[in-house]
Amino acid sequence: VLALNGKIKEVGEKILASKGKKVDFASALESCEEAGGTLATPMNEEENKAVLSIVKQYNQYAYLGIKEGGTSGQFKYINGTPLNYTKWHQYEPNGKGTEKCVEMYTDGSWNDKKCNLYRLTICEF
């Protein structure tokens, strides 16, 4: 259903989809998982650009499938593995434990952000 309603982008082995819905981090993750995927998680420059293309279509910041772990300033993929690729905006991450989620700006760079804000949901399958 999600794929038919929204914008779809294929990158490598992944398919990215969004229907332009803005919700908090937990709801975004839940809706992606209900659809059989997870939140978009760029693991290289090519995937980051693909996510960015959807962010630009909607002109909305989007949550990524990345969260701060137990250590302040240490971010991990949703599945708990360490990041092997990052695209932090200058001077980010700077939340020092208060901003546990990650959003993508409309220029493709990342910012740590609180998890209760409404951001674009982009799922990957």
Automatic annotation (TrEMBL):
Residues annotated as transmembrane: none
BP-aspect Gene Ontology terms: ossification
GO cellular component: extracellular space
Domain C-type lectin: 25-124
SMART domains: CLECT
Keywords: Disulfide bond, Lectin, Secreted, Signal
Top-rank lineage group of the source organism: Eukaryota
InterPro entries: C-type_lectin-like (IPR001304), C-type_lectin-like/link_sf (IPR016186), C-type_lectin_CS (IPR018378), CLec_Tetranectin-domain (IPR051663), CTDL_fold (IPR016187)
A GO term for molecular function: carbohydrate binding
Keyword Secreted: yes
Protein location: Secreted
Keyword Secreted: yes
Protein name: Pulmonary surfactant-associated protein A
